[in-house]
Design brief:
three-stranded antiparallel sheet, elongated, alpha+beta, single chain, 537 residues, Beta-lactamase
Length: 537
């Protein structure tokens, strides 16, 4: 088909018109985009990077920190303004640093003391919450997701983790979240670690106990001040790392358990209670011929010395730990008064140290239980249904050592805001359970049990020790038919002027004189040699 020349001209004119229109539209779109880009780039925003928080400190009785014991450096870094390869050598965790190196935004990493500071690198100091080997772990507990999960971390969570714990830096950014390096950054560092909770623990004595207790596979050590009831050291074994709770949960020894709060069969240390009631009733002059066993209503009970101890008085029976003597003695006592004495000394009563840290009441047999001759026989030397915690045994020992008054055991002294002054301090609370004369008689027996026993592994040439050991049967046996027994010792020192009461439990440890007594001796000697007997604040 042949078109006319005029028609071709019209087509060309229309095409030219559309071309010009398209160019105008594209120019307008480009101009609009440039304006929006410029406006966005000129907008200001803030970007905040947070480092680990600073939490309140848990102090010992001398205001020494049990946590936050040292500081750690952290570096805030803007990767795209920093020579990152040269900074890598200062990073504590190289893998963590490499992740930051590839990030398109500011971040923070743990660094060493020599990390260089620049416009794009800001270094601050933050308390390290726990040490690699954390002392007093079962007292302190641990944190999970920024909250206290157990121990004092849980009990005082609101005090230790207040609103001013944050450590952070805030940068000014453009509309594309790029840091404006010339603009002033806002650095926030917390001083929350100055305040916190003050305990009765003595850090130096706590460390002595933990060192001596390394020989314990499972068990507990409690040290308290006899006249105040202040707990100077409390250790449970095995310990665990607050940085690896999963490993602790998978450990068959159950290290997360605070064994000072759990009740166990106590064995011969309870003979002190039976002896105490005998003194109260004026029957402490009783003499008995130990032949190695005794018949109670047709049921025979053996002494640990199968061929017998021969004639025993109450002091020699404590020294020799003669079972049959105390079985025979208990049959001459008022059972109701004997049980009430045990109750007055703290058996059958829970001990609350703070919210979430409460010791089991254990089991104190009823009068009806003790009306059964065999049950009374077991009770007289700490077997049968009777059970108690290391804290209860330690509290009884305090009462004997301080003249007959039972102290309320105390773990918390108070709260501090400035790391110097202590508020909400509670005074020691005591209640009389036995007379001063009776307590003095028991102290003499416990002193003789160590001093006059050539086989006593707690006897020391460096400090006088008064104590009673125990080997508590459990009714559990190994594959070879050998019974598991708990090894105990409880006592005080110096023997002639009691200052501290020590209780050691070695769970499934066998004979108390073999497993627990040497640990007691080591603790008492270390405290004495290091001049810590006069370390009260």
């Amino acid at each position: 088909m042949i078109r006319k020349r005029g028609e071709n001209g019209i087509i060309l004119l229309i095409a030219a018109f559309f071309l010009i229109f398209s160019i105008i539209v594209l120019d307008y779109f480009e101009l609009t985009m440039k304006n929006e880009y410029t406006e966005t780039a000129e907008e200001r925003a803030e970007l905040t990077v947070k480092a680990p928080a600073s939490y309140g400190t848990i102090y010992d009785r001398n205001m020494k920190p049990l946590v936050n014991m040292k500081k750690q450096k952290y570096a805030f870094v803007i990767p795209y303004f920093t020579d990152m390869p040269s900074l890598r050598e200062y990073a504590a965790d190289k893998e963590e640093f490499d992740h930051i190196n590839t990030a398109p935004y500011p971040d923070v990493f743990q660094c060493d003391e020599t990390t260089p500071i620049s416009k794009s690198v800001t270094v601050i100091e933050i308390p390290e919450r726990y040490s690699s080997y954390q002392t007093a772990q079962h007292i302190i507990g641990y944190i999970s997701d920024g909250k206290g999960t157990s121990g004092l971390e849980l009990a005082y969570d609101k005090i230790l983790r207040s609103d001013n714990c944050e450590n952070s830096i805030t940068y000014t950014c453009d509309g594309f979240n790029r840091v404006l390096i010339g603009d002033k950054k806002k650095l926030r560092t917390s001083s929350a670690d100055i305040g916190g909770v003050v305990t009765t623990i003595d850090l130096d004595i706590q460390k002595i106990c933990e060192s001596a207790g390394k020989k314990i596979n499972k068990g507990a050590i409690v040290v308290s001040e006899v006249y105040s009831g202040d707990i100077i050291a409390l250790a449970s074994f095995p310990s665990y790392s607050p940085y690896n709770i999963e490993a602790a949960m998978n450990d068959k020894r159950s290290p997360l358990i605070n064994r000072a709060l759990y009740s166990y069969s106590v064995g011969s240390i309870f003979k002190l209670v039976t002896a105490c009631e005998a003194i109260n009733e004026g029957k402490n002059s009783y003499i008995y011929e130990c032949t190695g066993r005794i018949n109670i209503k047709g049921q025979y009970f053996n002494c640990h010395k199968y061929d017998g101890h021969g004639k025993e008085n109450i002091t020699s029976a404590i020294t020799d730990s003669c079972n049959t003597y105390f079985i025979a003695l208990s049959r001459r006592l008022d059972v109701r008064k004997l049980r009430q004495l045990a109750n007055d000394l703290g058996f059958g009563k829970e001990i609350s140290l703070c919210s979430g840290i409460t010791a089991s009441p254990g089991v104190l047999p009823t009068e009806k239980d003790l009306s059964i001759p065999a049950e009374l026989a077991n009770f007289s030397f700490g077997q049968g249904k009777l059970s108690a915690t290391p804290l209860q045994v330690n509290r009884m020992t305090c009462a004997i050592a301080n003249g007959g008054e039972v102290p309320m055991l105390r773990l918390i002294k108070g709260i501090t805001v400035d790391g110097v002054n202590i508020a909400n301090v509670k005074m020691p609370q005591l209640s009389r359970a036995i007379s001063e004369d009776t307590a003095a008689g028991l102290r003499r027996m416990m002193t003789a049990a160590i001093r006059d026993n050539d086989n006593a592994n707690a006897r020391s040439e460096k400090v006088g020790i008064a104590a009673k050991t125990s080997t508590a049967q459990t009714g559990r046996y190994d594959d070879e038919g050998n019974e598991y027994c708990h090894g105990w010792i409880t006592g005080f020192f110096p023997a002639d002027s009691p200052k501290y009461a020590i209780t050691v439990l070695v769970e499934d440890g066998g004979y108390g004189n073999d497993s627990a007594a040497p640990i007691f001796k080591e603790i008492a000697e270390q405290i004495t040699e290091k001049g810590l007997l006069d370390s009260s604040p």
